[in-house]
Structures are given as structure tokens and as C-alpha cells.
Amino acid sequence: MKNKIILAIGAHPDDTDFGASGTIAKWVEEGATACYVICTDGSRGSEDPRMTHKKLAAIRKSEQEEAAKVLGVKKVFFLNHPDTQLVSDLKLKEELVRVIRTVKPNIVITMDPTFYYSEEFINHTDHRAAAVAAMDAVFPLSRDRLTFLEHEKVGLRPHKVEEILFVSFGGGEFFVDISKTIEKKIKALALHKSQFENFADVEKRVRKRAKMLGKKGGYKAAESFKRVVIR
Ligand SMILES: [Zn+2]
Fold it and tell me: What are residue 113's phi and psi, to 5 degrees?
């Protein structure tokens, strides 16, 4: 992973840390550079009657910055769209293309754009919007010079992403061994303090899932993805 650039695009602060932070920490340890994009401000997920949007957005931003530090993530780009209102429109795609052309990632990690619901839960609308916009931004929008030609004026060139990994709730056949970085993942997740009433339960769930995926992939602990190598 030496000299590889990884860009992870999530809807909310904590999304990428749940889905892929073991992988990101591992690849950073191996010499990759990683950046995050957080599309929304995460400003709606609180039951506290005294909480305001503005206050919560600031808390969640700083929690994500702290978590990123634990993982060795170099920079977090916040797009600050209102939580729960993310739409996979041209504006969002342009913003993502701008980041992609700036960071020039080899690999983009995002959520699964085909995942709408399971028997147990409905996938959050922001997750779907971020995933679709990220996929479209990777291909074809970042690649084509004539798309968002205004980027040239600020020195940004078209960029070809080599590979996209979708964090898959329902499986995915590409397993990454996170046995050595699961502790960093837990530490990073714990820093999203405003998200959890009982982090012990969350930790238990995360470890259980990593173990289950590890079993499938032949490791002690793993994260899994659907992988597209773009030709
Ligand atoms: Zn989320």
C-alpha cells in the first residue's frame, strides 16, 4: 500500500469509521495516505431536547477530527450538507469530483449504492445519496476533462480512480484483515461520543461482526467490501 492514496466518502461523521476504519488504519500503517469526505453535518441525530443543529454539527465535526487522528487520516473534508437531506444531485457530485481531483486517490471507499433495506432496518437516505454520488463522481465524472471544466481554472486535472470499495452490509467478497488494527477502530469509534449512550454495546457488536467477517475471509478479524476494479 506504499504511496497509495485512499479517499473514503461517507454521509455522516462515524460512517466510514464503522465500515472501513480498520482497513484504513492498516493501509496507513503500510504507507498509504488516507483522506475522508463527510457529506453531511450530522446535525440531526440527537434526542437531547437542549441540543441545537449548530451545536451538534460542531460536536460531531470535532469528534470526527479526533477519530481521524487515531487512524492516521491526513485530512477530513466536510461538505456540511444538512443531515437527513442529502441528495445525490449535480451539486454534490461536483463537490466530490473536486475533492477527487484534488486528492487524486487510487482507491475510493464508500457505502453500497445498491443497498436500500434489509429485513431488520432501512438504510439511511443519506447513506444511499452519498454512495450514488460518490460512485458517479468516481466514474465517469472525475475522469472526463469536459465535465466540470471550471475545475481547470483552479488547476485541477481529470483523474482516474483505479478501484472502488463499497462497504457492504450484506456481505461482499473482498476481505481485509484488520486483526492488528481493530483496537484503533474501536478507539476511533469511541471518540464519536455524542452518538452512543452505551458504547460497551457498540463495541461488542463491532467486535462480533469483525470476527464473523474474519471467519469468512480466513482472518481473526476483518472488514468486507464489494470491490470494483475500474478498467
Ligand atoms: Zn450514517
Answer: -70, -10
Beta strands in 91-217 (DSSP E): 107-111, 163-167, 174-177
How remote is the CA of residue 201 from the centroid of ligand 1, in Å? 18
Of 106-110, 120-124, 183-187, the one with minimum mean pLDDT is 120-124
The domains of the chain, with CATH numbers, are 5-229 (3.40.50.10320)
Query: How far is the C-alpha of 82 from the C-alpha of 180, rounded, in Å?
Result: 35
- Decide: 63 and 42 in contact? Cβ < 8 Å: no
How much distance in Å is there from the Cα of 111 to the middle of ligand 1? 10
What average pLDDT does this structure show over 183-197?
A: 96
Cis geometry, peptide bond prior to residue 140 (ω within 30 degrees of 0): yes
Q: Is the dihedral of CA 144, 174, 35, 5 positive or negative?
A: negative
Q: How many CA atoms lie within 13 A of 223 on its CB side?
A: 26
Q: Whole-prediction pTM value?
A: 0.96
223 CA to centre of ligand 1 in angstroms = 17
Task: Report how far ligand 1's centroid is from the alpha carbon of 229 (Å).
Answer: 25
pLDDT number for residue 170? 66
What distance, in Å, lies between the first and last C-alpha atoms of the chain? 20
Of 125, 23, 8, 25, which Cα lies nearest the Cα of 77?
A: 8
Task: Return the number of other C-beta atoms located less than 10 Å from residue 159's C-beta.
Answer: 15
